[in-house]
Design goal:
The protein has one domain. The chain has 141 residues and is mainly α. The protein has helices at residues 3-58, 68-86, 92-97, 100-114, 117-139.
Length: 141
């Protein structure tokens, strides 16, 4: 085989190989960033939903006087958080591992049973701390 031709072939193969390797690394990096961005978004949505649920419960002063309206509020708050907690695609495993769903149910059930807003706030703060801890662990922050 002719030496200039061999050099030309090796040059082409080297360039092709380099391009493929660069493409693979770039694609892998972009996918990692895409997943991390989606996890951040899901954690934000979860924290926003928790804050909204807390606001919805705390803004009412006289729970005993609400009667049936109180039941409707609890059901709506439960359903809204249930949806957000169970439809997480990227962070669902972390939510499950940290028992966030169970802690939320216990916190809301405690509020429903005792109407103790302070205890409810403490439970929500504990859940918020768990969510932030999970986010930091998963995102390497």
């Amino acid at each position: 085989m002719d030496r200039p031709f061999a050099k030309w072939c090796l040059g082409i193969l080297g360039t092709l190989f380099g391009s493929v390797v660069t493409y693979m690394f770039t694609r892998h990096s972009q996918q990692k960033h895409w997943v991390a961005d989606n996890k951040k978004q899901e954690y934000r949505e979860l924290l926003d939903a928790l804050m909204e649920a807390e606001r919805e419960v705390i803004k009412r002063r006289d729970w005993k006087g609400l009667g049936l309206d109180a039941e409707k509020i609890f059901i709506r708050v439960f359903n809204d958080m249930h949806r957000v907690l169970t439809d997480r695609i990227f962070i669902g495993k972390s939510i499950h591992e940290k028992n966030i769903y169970t802690k939320w149910n216990d916190t809301l059930e405690g509020m429903h049973r005792t109407l103790n807003v302070g205890q409810f706030r403490d439970g929500v703060e504990e859940i918020r701390a768990l969510i932030l801890q999970a986010a930091r662990e998963e995102l390497g922050i």
